[in-house]
């Protein structure tokens, strides 16, 4: 029989994978990996603000990530800086501000390693509620805007000419990423969240013939990564969050090898 904490860890990781798979496809298609890093780095600032203001740090993370998403969309509209430069400034500034804010918490000991690299084995029932509430919200929004968002991703100018609200769709995508990162922080940590968005989607891309297939395969690859990472962590006594990411990397490397064999065949 599996221990309760392992069951909770697997359920938490599965909830994250089911959301990160489809969402990660848009991250890959739109080349938004750096935006994910910007949001994840800002999460540390949200944690610090949560403690300073006396509120749940998870709420602070959600608020800071949403604020960052809105700020990025607003600054992108002004076209004063290239997007990669803008995201680089915001990502590192958010991380630095978070560390400085935590330095003011003299009477509180903050487990930075837990926030930076996650502790999926410490997931509680309340955390599961957060994760699956966020999953339902994000997946529901993706279902509602899937076709329009896919259209705007593939042909943004044509979508704009057809009357599709490209700006609104971009904002929805960024906000769903913000909620996902806030929910995933406890599982794989701030520094590893983006990898769970990108690696399973990149793995699925080699075997999918339609966008919908890629979304399903990416979610499946994420679930397998969670199961394999937890098994490896239990077997070899390694950190659980990084082990999940390493398992996702191994799946990606296997997909590269299989993809090469299929092309030769």
TrEMBL record:
Pfam families documented for this protein: ABC-3
Origin: domain of life: Bacteria
Keywords: Cell membrane, Ion transport, Membrane, Transmembrane, Transmembrane helix, Transport, Zinc, Zinc transport
Topology term for the membrane: Multi-pass membrane protein
Compartments (UniProt record): Cell membrane
CDD domains: TM_ABC_iron-siderophores_like
UniProt xrefs under InterPro entries: ABC_BtuC-like (IPR037294), ABC_TroCD (IPR001626)
TM segment ranges: 6-29, 41-74, 86-108, 120-146, 166-193, 214-236, 242-262
Family named by the database record: Belongs to the ABC-3 integral membrane protein family.
Biological function: Involved in the high-affinity zinc uptake transport system.
Protein name as catalogued: High-affinity zinc uptake system membrane protein ZnuB
């Amino acid at each position: 029989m599996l221990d309760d904490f392992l069951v909770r860890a697997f359920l938490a990781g599965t909830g994250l994978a089911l959301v990160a798979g489809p969402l990660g496809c848009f991250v890959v298609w739109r080349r938004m990996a750096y935006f994910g890093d910007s949001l994840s780095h800002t999460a540390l600032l949200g944690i610090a603000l949560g403690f300073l203001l006396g509120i749940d740090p998870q709420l602070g993370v959600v608020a800071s990530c949403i604020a960052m998403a809105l700020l990025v969309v607003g600054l992108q509209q002004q076209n004063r800086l290239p997007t990669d430069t803008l995201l680089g400034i915001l990502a590192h500034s958010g991380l630095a501000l978070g560390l400085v804010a935590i330095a003011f918490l003299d009477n509180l000991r903050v487990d930075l390693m837990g926030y930076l690299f996650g502790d999926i084995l410490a997931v509680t029932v309340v955390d599961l509620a957060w994760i699956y509430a966020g999953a339902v919200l994000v997946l529901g929004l993706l279902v509602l805007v899937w076709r329009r968002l896919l259209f705007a991703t593939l042909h943004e100018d044509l979508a704009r000419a057809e009357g599709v609200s490209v700006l609104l769709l971009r904002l929805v995508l960024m906000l769903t990423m913000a909620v996902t990162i806030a929910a995933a922080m406890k599982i794989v940590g701030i520094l590893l969240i983006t990898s769970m968005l990108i690696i399973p989607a990149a793995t699925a891309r080699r075997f999918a013939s339609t966008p919908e297939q890629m979304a399903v395969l990416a979610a499946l690859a994420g679930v397998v990564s969670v199961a394999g990472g937890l098994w490896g962590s239990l077997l070899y006594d390694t950190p659980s969050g990084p082990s999940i990411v390493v398992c996702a990397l191994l799946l990606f490397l296997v997909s590269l090898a299989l993809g090469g064999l299929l092309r030769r065949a």
